[in-house]
TrEMBL record:
First-listed, main subcellular location of the protein, grouped into a coarse class: cytoplasm
Keywords, sorted A to Z: ATP-binding, Coenzyme A biosynthesis, Cytoplasm, Kinase, Nucleotide-binding, Transferase
Pathway: Cofactor biosynthesis; coenzyme A biosynthesis; CoA from (R)-pantothenate: step 5/5
Entry protein name: Dephospho-CoA kinase
InterPro entries hit by this protein: Depp_CoAkinase (IPR001977), P-loop_NTPase (IPR027417)
Function statement: Catalyzes the phosphorylation of the 3'-hydroxyl group of dephosphocoenzyme A to form coenzyme A.
EC number, UniProt record: 2.7.1.24
One of the record's GO cellular component terms: cytoplasm
GO terms, molecular function: ATP binding; dephospho-CoA kinase activity
GO aspect biological process, one term: coenzyme A biosynthetic process
Amino acid sequence: MLKIGITGGIGTGKTVVSRVFALLSVPVYDSDARAKWVMQHDEVLRQELITAYGAEAFTAEGELNRSYLASVVFNNPERLEQLNTLVHPHVRHDFAKWAALHADKPYVLKEAALMYESEAWKQMDQIITVFAPMETRIKRLLHRDTHRTEEDIRNIISKQLSEEERMSRAEHIIYNDDQQLIIPQVLKLHEQLIASEITK
């Protein structure tokens, strides 16, 4: 079974592309959603978070206090790096267990915005990056995240890995630029991945 990573900057549409793969019965691991689940349910990580950020990391009811954690790491690169260093190893372990459940499939997808920053790429056999031009991304995000300004969005993008670096490090690129259709690109890549696994 191949482990395929799928990544892309904010607003490129990697989640949309992942959903197309899911319609083809490809198992998709959503790193963002699973990270939240792991932070809530992994007892070792819970204790690490409490040690690092205090009892306020969880509510009185035992729920992850996401707003508190966000306020602690917001505009504090060192604290954000600390949080990522704690969480990412547990997510990698969770992915490994999840992937083992789908060993009968030709390949699985791991969707992760921080594919390289979290070193999740080291678990992958190949990487897909989803590309969209800057102005297209900004337009989409202004429509989606109505609480954000264009300046906010440009600031977020500036802190992410550049599209050039993502594209240079990926084996496959899917263009979600409103010029090329996504589905034919996904179907073609899907067939290639299945063929490459069958002929291994």
